[in-house]
Amino acid sequence: MSDRVPILEMKRISKFFPGVKALSDVDFRLFKGEVHSVMGQNGAGKSTLVKVLTGVYKQDSGEMLLEGKPIRPDSPLAAQKLGINAVYQEVNLCPNLSVAENIFIGKQPMKNGMIDWPKLNRNAGELLARLNIYIDVSQILASYSIAVQQMVAIARVLDSSSQILILDEPTSSLDENEVAQLFKVIKKLRDDGLAILFITHFLDQTYQIADRITILKNGVFVGEYRTSELPKLDLIAKMLGKELSEFSFAAGSDKSKKTSSATSREVDSILKVRALGLPGSIAPFDLTLDKGEIVGLAGLLGSGRTEMARLIFGIDSADQGEILIKGKKTNINSPRNAIMAGMGFCSEDRKSEGIFPDLTVRENIVLALQGRKGIFQNISKKKQGEIADEMVKSLGIKTPNANILTKQLSGGNQQKVLLARWLATNPILLILDEPTRGIDVGAKFEIMELILNLSKQGMGVIFISSEFEEVVRCSTRVAVLKDKAKIAELVGNEVNENKIMQTIAGGE
Amino acid sequence: MLSWKSLTNNKLIWPIVSLAILLVFNLFFTPHFFAIQIMDGHLFGNVIDIIKNAAPKAILAIGLTLVIATHGIDISVGSVVAISAGVVAMLIGGDLQGIPKHPIFISMVVAVLVCTLAGTWNGFLVSRIGMQPIIATLILFVAGRGIAMVTTNAMQVWLYAKPFALLGQGYFLGLPFSIYIVASLFILTYIVTRGTALGLFIEAVGLNPTASRFAGINAKNILLSVYAFSGFCAGLSGLIVCSTVMNADGNNAGLLFELDAILAVVLGGTSLNGGKFSLGGSIIGALIIQTLTTTIYAFGVPPEISQVVKAFVVYIICLLQSDQFRRKVAGAFGREVSV
Question: A15 and A154: one domain?
Fold first, then answer.
């Protein structure tokens, strides 16, 4: 295949954002009649690459060749004119219009200045038939399943001039049957000669559908491989940027000291989760957490780590299973319940679910404590100031004083403010979802240090991170998640990156 | 430079500057604007009139400030004013001898309770059903006038019970009685929002409902209570409106008040995007609007274009309050801009 000329060649593409190198010298090739998967962790640069290709962003350096001719689309529309089309995760269609209208919106066939409805419906039907979909195109889109809607979205961007189809996480809201249905369509399009760039975080799906894989890591090109020649374990290792041999050395360094807590579990367990689950979110799971223990949740993006945390913290309501806090069955239907029960939760999405940039550092810090006390047990400004100053000092938050707006702080310091909010409530259990994401190395280190200290003082911590290295470094035990289910729990010497990856890869 | 900076960073400064400019304009161009006479031990004059006439809208603005701080809106307040007027008028009754059908105080309490209930209905739609605030309150905006008409059997009710007139026309210690109502409500609201955690919670919910929920704040109840409070304020405002003219008119009582009240809140420096709110600012906002209205009358602007003039001045004031605009102007004059 590789001696053929690729239809698309992206050479040494770089893209900078203020302070971040989103892509640096990334190469990417796409051939006619193949499905090519781009893999990588969060922040690897997958979506930036797609956005450069579709003209949303302009690359800062590098060139793109389409059929050997240099192109430089400056808008999604320009890219579409070149035959490059993208379908995104969320179906960007109008659910209350008919299927046919959705397909031809903006390019309706006209007759005498009016829309030619018979032709519109006929053409829509033919287009879908090309994908082996036979449905009534005059029905409104919302009456069909998400999978069908997804295919309508694909049909919409396909016309005779289409050369490249980009599918960005098209399967994330589909069930197994729907995925199979969608894959049939993708395979048909591939066999018709379309070049398909497929982005997913489901490993198994990549192996089902992709002919080749390009791996990115932190904006850097790692390599391009044939799927058949790349074992799953290698793929994971490369996505994380590790050599397998590295793991064997690191494994079991000093885990023995951490296993002792397992013996006294019955007495000390502060959290016991039994068969907690919510269909479509995460399969029923058990989880136990002892006093002073750090349990890591390891898994790739979309494996259900966050969903697990959300169920425990009562953000989503589980429809089965139970939660025991300190041996007592506790009903947790809302974050408020969870906070009352002594939990704290730092969301992975600091900006939209955590910090209030327009409130002061002081207000951000006391918010959860005040939330727990309720409206009438007001914490006086003076007391608030004392709490905030103490936190600023003990966590080393870099701010001139606690009365400035939180948005003026750096990401790492904002993360510390969020941590401080929970520490101020003096929780028995803290759930940290990606507490080190998007902050600099120094702050990362400080936060990990802090977590270890907290557990020494007896706090239970559930630690979620995409960096397996961090999970291993912090955790006594590790629950491994894959495809929205807990698949294993590693203890003692098993807590190492190699074992985690093997478990995820399915024991290869 | 530092003091200038801290001054311009104060949220109240631009509303105060706007009001001051209007007053200074009057000082030079409207004869006797600031003249205050004492008659029968009461103070009279343009300034007193402004404060007195601003009262109903200032009360609405206090309630709306909290609603707007939660990133909501309540456009039903004008209609609720009409309901309040209707209910209190029917309970007191149009007896020509001025003998009330029901005790005046009880009638007023019932009217305000009905309006609080109406506000709670808005809050229910927004917080429990999840309706968008403008749609939820649009329902009562439309229905409210109908309810007011039904209450008064589609007739205007004239009142003759003298003691009721105290609210809108009476004086206490030389000043219009309504000023004391506004002042008490303001102080009470200030204490309830700033003396408890309510103010912080309202701001948090307005800035980010999701993050608030994660921090253990019961956003739904906060929303419910601010809309209920807005209804309460509208009820109170309706009593004053009714008492001022001793008449309840379902069609016209409180007509378009919601717009002036919203404008007052915005002029006072509370953003329609929710978050930080300023009760004092809203009161100043209400004063700005009333001063403007009075100025336009006093200046002799022909009534047919008075609305246009009012709109134009409001537009200028909004520009003055916009950080972006001020920065641009400062930039255009080549001055170094302190942010």
Answer: yes
Instruction: Read off the pLDDT band of A91 (50, 70, 90).
Output: low
What value does the mean pLDDT of chain A take? 85
Same domain for A371 and A495? no
- Calculate how close chain B gets to A311, using CA atoms only, in Å: 12
Pairwise CB contact (< 8 Å): A370 & B201: yes
Q: How many domains does chain B contain in total?
A: 2
What's the confidence (pLDDT) of residue B189?
Answer: 97
Tell me, yes or no, if B232 comes closer than 8 A to chain A by beta carbon. no
User: Are A251 and A318 contained in the same domain?
Assistant: yes
Interface check B195 vs A, CB under 8 A: yes
Same domain, A421 and A443: no
Its sign, for the CA torsion A465, A471, A477, A483, is positive
Q: Is the CB of A157 inside 8 Å of chain B's CB atoms?
A: no
- ipTM for this model: 0.82
Query: What is the predicted pLDDT for the residue at A242?
Result: 67
Give the gap in angstroms from C-alpha B213 to the nearest C-alpha of chain A. 7
Q: How far is the C-alpha of B189 from the C-alpha of B193, rounded, in Å?
A: 6
Average pLDDT over residues B167-189: 93
Looking at the structure, tell me whether residues B203 and B315 fall in a common domain.
no
Query: Do B216 and B204 touch, CB atoms closer than 8 A?
Result: no
Do residues B313 and B288 both lie within one domain?
no
B174: pLDDT confidence band, cut at 50, 70 and 90?
confident
Q: What are phi and psi of B8, to 5 degrees?
A: -75, -20
Segment B166-191 shows an average pLDDT of: 93
Domain, as residue range, for B158: 21-300
Q: Retrieve residue B125's tokens.
A: 């739609």
> Of the given ranges (A31-35, A215-219, B87-91), which has the lowest mean pLDDT?
A215-219
Q: Is A175 left (phi over 0), alpha (psi -120 to 50) or beta?
A: beta
pLDDT band at A260 (very low <50, low <70, confident <90, very high): very low
Q: Which residues of B touch A353 (CB under 8 A)?
A: 208, 210-211, 214
Give dist(CA A48, CA A219) in Å, integer: 9
How far apart CA A258 and CA A281 sit, in angstroms, is 31
In a domain, A240, yes or no: no
Residue where one domain finishes, among candidates A376, A405, A426: A426
Domain C-terminal end among A203, A230, A257: A230
Asked if residue A384 and residue A283 are part of one domain, the reply reads: no
- On whether both A192 and A293 belong to a single domain, the answer is no
Q: Dihedral through CA A433, CA A434, CA A436, CA A438, nearest 10?
A: -130
CA of B173 vs chain A CAs: smallest distance (Å): 35
Q: Where residue A284 falls among pLDDT bands split at 50, 70, 90?
A: very high
Helix, coil or strand: residue A210: coil
Q: Who has greater pLDDT, B277 or B42?
A: B277
Q: Shortest Cα distance from A477 to chain B (angstroms)?
A: 26
Q: Does residue B256 lie within any of the structural domains?
A: yes
Give residue-wise pLDDT tens across range B267-300.
998 988 899 999 999 999 999 999 998 888 888 8
- B218 touching A, CB under 8 A? yes
Which residue in chain A has the smallest CA separation from B215?
A: A368
Give how many domains chain A has, as a whole number: 3
**Chain B, nearest residue to A348 by Cα:** B211
Q: Are residues A481 and A409 in the same domain?
A: no
Domain residues for the domain of A375 are 357-426
Cα–Cα nearest to A476, from A455, A502, A505 = A455
B214 in contact with A, Cβ within 8 Å: yes
